[in-house]
Amino acid sequence: MYDWGYELEPGILFVPFSSVAVSGPAIWGLYLLIKERLRTKQRKIKQQLNYWILGTTIALGISAYTELFNLDGQGRFLFVPLSPAAISIQAFFIFVAITRYGFLNISLERIAVELFRDIHDGIILTKENHEFFFANQAAIAILDGSPSREGLFKPEWHFANYREEQDHIPRDYQLIGHSALQFIELTVSEIKITENESGTLYLLRDITEKKAAQEKIHQLYSQIVNDLEIARVTQASIITQKFPDKGSYRIHSFFQPIDKVGGDMLRVIEHPGERVDILFADVSGHGIASAMVGGMLSIAFQIISEKKLSPKESLFEIHEMLSKVVLHHHISAVYASFYPQENRVRFSYAGHHPMLVFRGGKIYPLEGEGRILLAVKELHLNDYHFDLLSSDRLLFYSDGLYEVKNDLGEIFGYDEFLDWIQGMADRDTRSLLEAAHRKALEFGNGKHNDDLAMLALEIGP
Asked: What is the pLDDT of residues 22-65, one digit of tens each?
């Protein structure tokens, strides 16, 4: 039982085993302190640990010597063991460390490391008066080095045009001292470090790629806006806005696209002494693509109008010309040729709703049939004619006037539109067009979901 020895007759294993039993916990604690001292980068924490390590080393040495080696041949102490004095010495060093450098700094840093080491965003903690306390590896990588200078961290050293703000809203800053442009989203908030001490938490997020993407989007958006403006001017140039003012007839129009450009198209070409060709069309869709198709349609109309074909033949020609280049749009249209000397209008429909004739305070739809252009290869079109009288008015109008929706998603409706415009039949042509425009906007609560276009041919008295 006593083979390893005891105080009076110590064996060869007595001192080692006694050292482990008596000094083991203290030695392990000293190892942890030294390990922490080597790991931490905080100057003040290192100084605090120096006191702890020194006090623990002195206390361990005094206690071990006086307890294990302070014996005579009879196993009696040569002098009084100094373990209580050693504990007092260690307590003194701990007291000095706490008094000079604060309480629980070591554990707080360890907690911060555990909390923030795996976060990809940069984390920086400071105490009051910008005293640097902690930074994770992400923050060090973002700032390309230690955030602190002489134990302090001030945001204005790293972020251009930094200003202290009262709120906690994330703000974007450019990093200072970097050769390449680098942008950081910085969030600043107050944090409680101890019961009696507050600090500041800085959250850093690298948004350089996000900024570059935003800049590209902004440039692309600016280019699109510029292209839309060019498209708007181009469309305005191909839509007839000035019409021949003859004694025998007058033409009025109104056009408002849903965006800067639209898919509705109206053109008038006069062949003096013979006839006036009118093309009123609606290209499917909206925006630049529809406007481009509308531009091609305008060019095709100008070319074909010179041939002075019948309306049916003209629509056939337009279909054949555009079907080779327009693949994803279709066109509803009405092609009308007005002969002033006869007051006769010849017309053909391609999937378009009827024109309206205003006569004697009443309206008369000019019915007709015809397949939509570019939707199917084989067209079915017809030629029609109608004789106009003095003071008659012939109205072309887009479906946007009666397909407008209100806030509940309800559509105004074609029959309702006819009933409404019947009540406006006595108005002059210009006020009639303006009233129809206002009606569509009123029903849509100031909005319209399609292009609005109207053209009126007014026969003189």
From this structure: 666 767 777 777 877 787 766 777 777 787 788 778 777 777 66
Residue 18 has pLDDT above 70, yes or no: no
What is the distance between the alpha carbons of residues 244 and 319, in angstroms, rounded to a whole number? Answer: 28
DSSP string, 235-266: HHHHS--S----SSEEEEEEEE-SSSS-SEEE
CA distance 105 to 43: 12
**Nearest CA-CA partner of 82 in 104, 51, 60:** 60
- How far apart CA 35 and CA 25 sit, in angstroms, is 15
Amino acid at 343: N
CB 45 within 8 A of CB 106: yes
Q: Which helix (H) or strand (E) holds 125?
A: strand 122-126
Sequence letter at residue 233:
V
Sign of the CA dihedral running 90, 94, 99, 100: positive
Q: State the DSSP string of 164-186.
A: --SS---EEEEBTT-SS--EEEE
Supply 316's token pair.
């056939």
pLDDT in tens, 405-425: 888 889 999 999 999 999 999
Instruction: Look at 44 and 374; give whichever has higher pLDDT.
Output: 374
Stated length of the chain? 461
CB-based contacts of 101, cutoff 8 Å, min separation 6: 44, 45, 47, 48
Alpha-carbon span 42 to 52, nearest angstrom: 15
DSSP type of residue 57: H
End-to-end CA distance of the chain: 138
Say how far residue 365 (Cα) sits from the centre of its chain: 48
Q: Name the maximum alpha-carbon separation found in the chain.
A: 148
Q: Are 277 and 337 in contact (CB under 8 A)?
A: yes
One-letter identity of residue 121: D
Report yes or no: 183 and 161 within 8 Å, Cβ to Cβ: no
Residue of 277, 252, 299, 310 whose CA lies nearest to 458: 252
Contact 249, 460 (CB under 8 A): yes
Q: How far apart (Å, rounded) are the C-alpha atoms in residues 83 and 43?
A: 32
DSSP string of 378-392? S-----EEEE--TT-
Q: What pLDDT was estimated at residue 104?
A: 47
